[in-house]
Amino acid sequence: MKYLLPFIMATQLSGCASIGKGMVEAYLEKQQFIDTRVCEIWGEPFNGLSPFLGNNQGKMKVLMVHGVGDHLPGYSTQFVEKLTKELDLPVMSKQYKNISLTSRIDNSKNLGNLRITRWLSKDRSKELLFYELTWSIITAKQKEVLAYDNSGEYSFRRSEVNDLMKKFSNDTSPDPIIYLGESREDILVSFGQSFCWMTKSNWDDLPDDNAQQACSFNDSSSAANIHVDQYAFISHSLGSRIAIDGMQRIASLLDKRSVAFSNALKNKKIPIYMMSNQLPMLQLGRKLPDVSNENVAYCRPEGEKYNQRMLAKTPIIAFSDPNDLLSYAIPHGFVEKYLDSRLCIDVTNININVATIFDAFGLGKLANPLDAHVGYDTDDRVVALIAKGIGNKNTAKIVNERCRWIETID
Question: Burial code of 268-288, b = ≥16 C-beta within 10 A, e = fewer?
Fold first, then answer.
């Protein structure tokens, strides 16, 4: 009997542990099932992409720009499949097209990859051309200086979780620093080339797969397409700064090289959907733009500099999870002081929990900051807002039910 006692006790303890583990899992699963994550929107109504898919004269074209970290072509696949499902575009081109981006001045440069996919409705009446820019090859070479820290010589000394976090830091942290250096121009040229291919070509006119050639805004088809096509950018973290800087660079060059394209651009409204918005942080250490605090002069028809604007309007829809340690809302007055007035920027802030928040057994609320940083493009509410906007008859049911909208007016 005395030999059975330890066995009985061990069995009971093991049973208690199993019961305890089951209780914890059930507790966390229950919290996940009851989704109380916040979605709060401050701004004007916006339409999303949906109304422009049936454009009989032109096409709806979307460019995605990734943020920090190394990426491979195809990184946007999960997002674009969720987006096209929300837009009811179940037909896809058999092949996607890849363009190896390079510079018109130096075609020996590898400036990344532009992958284009074509999506259509079943009756072919609606169409979306999705452009995915992968620019991280530009910074990858410089980040090799940190490669030793990821080697076994150093990484084995860290705990498993800390090692994963350090490798993530080594992959992502250098990019904003590198962007402030010599590589910034190449990254902006990569963005400019991507936008050029968006404006210049429709699906049948795009180069064959894996072609390496440079695009020119001086092509007459670019200015013609600008008048009829609709454009939008979707960006993540550093990609948002790249999109803003890239458009400013394009506009400054076009004023000197292509009057027709520049004039066409002045009448376009191009929204930027910014996931994990970092504009305030990425403004640190930068000079103020050449033109600021002059929104009235450039952006209103009665303004004395209205004809010198870059775009008719640049709506920024900024998604920020408060548990994302690298994301920031755009505060009042930021646009006027720190962003170029000629872009005619208008901001909609969206405070949204993309990471699940747990109650850690009465010790406080907890959310994984990494999930909060990378979870935007898989969140159904984010996808629905980009697809169908808010404050219109097409607004998705999940947005109407799960998001609180505060409309802002002048």
Answer: bebbbbbbbbbbeebbeeeee
Which residues are within 8 A (CB) of 194 and not within 5 positions of it... i.e. 6 or more apart? 63, 65, 101, 114, 131, 133
Give the residue numbers spanning the domain of 351: 40-407
Residue 33 lies in a domain: no
**Could you tell me the CA-to-CA distances from 226 to 233, 275, 298 in Å, in that order?**
15, 26, 20
Q: Are 327 and 321 in contact (CB under 8 A)?
A: yes
What distance in Å separates the CA atoms of residue 284 and residue 182, rounded to the nearest whole number?
18
Number of domains present in the structure of the chain: 1
CA distance 267 to 227: 8
Model confidence over 77-86: pLDDT tens digits?
A: 999 999 999 9
> Could you tell me if residue 353 is inside a domain?
yes
pLDDT in tens, 30-64: 555 567 789 999 999 999 999 999 988 899 999 99
Q: Is the pTM of this model over 0.90?
A: no
Amino acid in the structure at residue 139: T
What are the residues whose beta carbons fall under 8 Å from the beta carbon of 35, sequence distance 6 or more? Answer: 402
Q: Is residue 6 part of a domain?
A: no
Q: What CA–CA distances, in Å, run from 1 to 7, 10, 364?
A: 10, 15, 47
In a domain, 383, yes or no: yes
